[in-house]
Write a structure and sequence with these properties.
By secondary structure, the protein is of the alpha+beta class. It has 9 helices and 20 strands. It has 2 domains: 265 residues, Aminopeptidase (3-Layer(aba) Sandwich), CATH 3.40.630; 112 residues, Alpha-Beta Plaits (2-Layer Sandwich). The structure holds zinc ion.
Length: 387
């Protein structure tokens, strides 16, 4: 690539990200049409690409874009990203949907999480389309809705449909262009405590459900959390549990007969999900009734896997210096590829987690521009002729 081509690509990815940020897709309420139109228009100008909308409703479009190499059959690699964002929220000093560029950063909701990553792999895809004779196999890009609440109408639906196969998946969530090869899992549970109502003036005649729940919340903090914190994983840190919500009582002068509490248990790739659920049930030990509302599996792709090794080499070449290898402490759609469909998966994107979901969200433009080269070179490495 010549210097002027590189300059054009830099302007292209920043311009595309601005267009994506200026097409709000906050979730809730969940309506990705405007942002997906930007994606569709961009891909529509890429020669030879097949675009399919597999979303469940018009408000929740989901694009699958397929590009075949010109050098023959080979591996299939997937690029994935979610186009929804959390709502803008309060506390901004910039326009949340303005795409302002200042001091080497591009500002706006989704700049880091993760329209920046999507812009990066879309531009890489266009460049790869222009160089089809250099690679074999197939590249499939997924731009999905609905990741923020858990992926039910997006990646989960897509991967469970059975229509997706691949030899490797690259999810463009924020990693600061480090290679993340692991992700924590999560287990959300509701615990309902029962008591007996009585008049507030005679509490001794009742059985206070809020007190039961409060004692349980403290017990979680004092006994279970320290136990879990002893379990560590080299890439994603410690296992944990935290009480998220508590709701009980109807009036000040009524002894409450019910209190409902929710907990958030984060699971390491080295832990077994079934053991984690039964461990929590045993800890509750009949004090309340537990229901598991959400179970998201953790995953880890081995350090020696060809996908991880190629990604580390490519980022080293593009960025120079030692590339950190890490893991995602939160959760993402990557689990549907890795744990759900059994596809070797890494997370690599120009955004950073400290920018996700915060006011004045932004992305480093230097990392954004580098992400295009990382995605392009990684695809060429994985799909080079002879693979
Ligand atoms: Zn995200």
């Amino acid at each position: 690539m010549t210097v002027s081509e590189a300059h054009a690509a830099a302007g292209e990815v920043a311009g595309l990200l601005q267009a994506l940020v200026c097409a709000p897709s906050p979730n809730p309420p969940g309506d990705e049409r405007a942002a997906m139109t930007v994606v569709r228009d961009y891909l529509g100008r890429v020669p030879g690409i097949e675009i399919e909308d597999v979303g469940v409703t018009p408000e929740r479009p989901m694009l699958v874009a397929t590009l075949h190499g010109g050098a023959g059959p080979g591996r299939t690699i997937l690029f994935g990203g979610h186009i929804d964002t959390v709502p803008a929220g309060d506390g901004w000093t910039r326009e949340p949907f303005g795409g302002e560029i200042s001091a080497g950063r591009l500002f706006g909701r989704g700049a880091s999480d993760m329209k920046g990553g999507i812009a990066g792999f879309l531009v890489a895809l266009r460049q790869l389309a222009a160089r089809r004779s250099e690679w074999c196999g197939t590249i499939v890009a997924h731009v999905v809705p609905d990741e923020e609440p858990g992926g039910q109408l997006g990646a989960e639906l897509l991967l469970k449909s059975g229509r997706i196969t691949g030899d490797a998946a690259i999810i463009a969530e924020p990693s600061g262009l480090a290679v993340f090869r692991a992700q924590k899992g999560n287990l959300f549970a509701t615990v309902t405590f029962e008591g007996r109502s009585a008049h507030g003036s005679t509490p001794e005649l009742g059985d206070n459900a809020v007190s039961h729940a409060a004692r349980f919340a403290l017990d979680v903090e004092q006994r279970l959390a320290p136990l879990l914190a002893q379990r560590r994983h080299e890439l994603v840190g410690r296992a944990s549990i935290s009480v998220g919500t508590i709701r009980g009582g109807v009036r000040t002068n009524v002894v409450p007969d019910e209190c409902v509490l929710t907990v958030d248990r984060r699971v390491l790739p080295s832990e077994d999900l079934e053991q984690a659920t039964s461990e929590l049930s045993r800890f509750i030990d009949g004090r309340g009734v537990v229901t598991f509302d959400h179970i998201g599996a953790a995953f880890e792709t081995p350090a020696e896997h060809w996908l991880v090794q190629a990604a580390v080499d490519v980022v080293n070449e593009v960025r120079g210096g030692e590339v950190p290898v890490g893991g995602l402490v939160g959760s993402s759609d990557a689990r549907f590829y890795a744990a759900g469909a059994g596809i070797p998966t890494i997370i690599i994107g120009p955004g950073t987690m400290d920018q996700a979901h915060v006011p004045d969200e932004s992305v480093d433009i230097d990392l954004l521009i580098s992400s295009v080269a990382v995605y392009r070179e990684l695809a060429l490495r994985l799909l080079g002729a002879g693979r």
